[in-house]
C-alpha cells in the first residue's frame, strides 16, 4: 500500500485500482445493506447501502461522492471520515450521508 500511504507517487494500474474500489464497495454493501445512501466513486462504481427509506427515482437524497484514492484511504482506515469531509475530499449530502460508523472496512498497516 505504498501509494495510499504516500510513500510513492506511482499510481496503481487502472484495473488494479478499479478492482480495489469495487471490492471495497461490495464489502460496504454487505456490511450495511439497504438503499438509503448512494456511494459514488467515479469512474469505477456506485452502490446503494444503509438501511432506511428506499430511493426509487431521480437523484437520491443521500449521496456520497469521492475519488478512488480518498475512498480507499477511508476504507482502509488511513483517513478518517471527519477529516475527509472537513477537507472537502468527500462530498456528502443528505441527513443520512455519513459513513463514519461503518469505516474503516479493513485496517492496514501497524
User: Secondary-structure element sequence?
Assistant: HEEEHHE
Shape summary: globular
Which stretches are poorly predicted, pLDDT < 50 over at least 5 residues? none
The assigned structural class equals alpha+beta
Please give the alpha-carbon distance between the first and last residues: 12 Å
Strand and helix map with partners:
Layout: H1 14-31, E1 37-41, E2 45-49, E3 63-66, H2 68-76, H3 81-86, E4 90-93
Parallel strand pairs: 1-3
Antiparallel strand pairs: 1-2, 3-4
Helix pairs in contact: 1-2
Task: Please describe the structure with a list of short key phrases separated by commas or semicolons.
4 strands, 3 helices, alpha+beta, single chain, 110 residues, 30% helix, 4-stranded mixed beta sheet
Describe the structure.
A four-stranded mixed β-sheet has the order 2-1-3-4. By secondary structure, the chain is α+β, with helices and mostly antiparallel strands. The protein is built from three helices and four strands. The two termini are 12 Å apart. The protein has helices at 14-31, 68-76, 81-86, and strands spanning 37-41, 45-49, 63-66, 90-93. The longest helix is centred in the first third of the chain and has 18 residues, at 14-31.
